[in-house]
Design goal:
With about 140 residues, this protein is mostly helical. It contains 8 helices and 2 strands, in the order ββαααααααα. Strand 1 and strand 2 form a beta hairpin. The radius of gyration is 17 Å and the shape is globular.
Length: about 140
């Protein structure tokens, strides 16, 4: 029997995984709800199932980059859906996100200060129109 023992109770690995999965689903739903409230053009055109799929992909990608704060994960998903699914590969964005002097969350939040409106337009115009069909 493997798991975590806390006093008189043993929490098995399967139980821990179930708790983590439930928490992750709740996070995804919170992000979806927030995105629906913002009601941007990118979100409006998606049905619930597709929006949830894109949020799952976005959260996974953001976490792979080291982001953890729910607000930052929401911002990452928003940019992924509304600007470009590959916004983070645009050179100025990629450079900032790769900086190690700050946390990944802090780097993500700095995008609004470091990126110009013209750069965001460039990112949006370079978006791959079939990206979502390939993932």
């Amino acid at each position: 029997m493997s798991g975590v023992q806390t006093g008189r109770f043993v929490i098995r690995n399967a139980q821990l995984e179930a708790i983590e999965q439930g928490t992750e689903r709740e996070l995804h739903q919170e992000i979806v709800s927030h995105l629906r409230l913002t009601n941007t053009e990118g979100v409006k055109k998606l049905d619930d199932q597709e929006l949830e799929r894109r949020v799952r992909i976005g959260v996974k990608r953001a976490r792979e980059r080291g982001m953890i704060a729910p607000g930052v994960l929401t911002l990452y998903c928003s940019l992924l859906i509304d600007i470009s699914p590959t916004f983070d590969s645009y050179e100025p964005v990629a450079k900032l996100l790769a900086e190690t002097e700050r946390s990944a969350d802090e780097n993500m939040l700095l995008l609004s200060e470091r990126m110009t409106a013209e750069q965001w337009v460039e990112v949006k115009n370079a978006a791959d129109p079939v990206y979502w069909e390939s993932v």
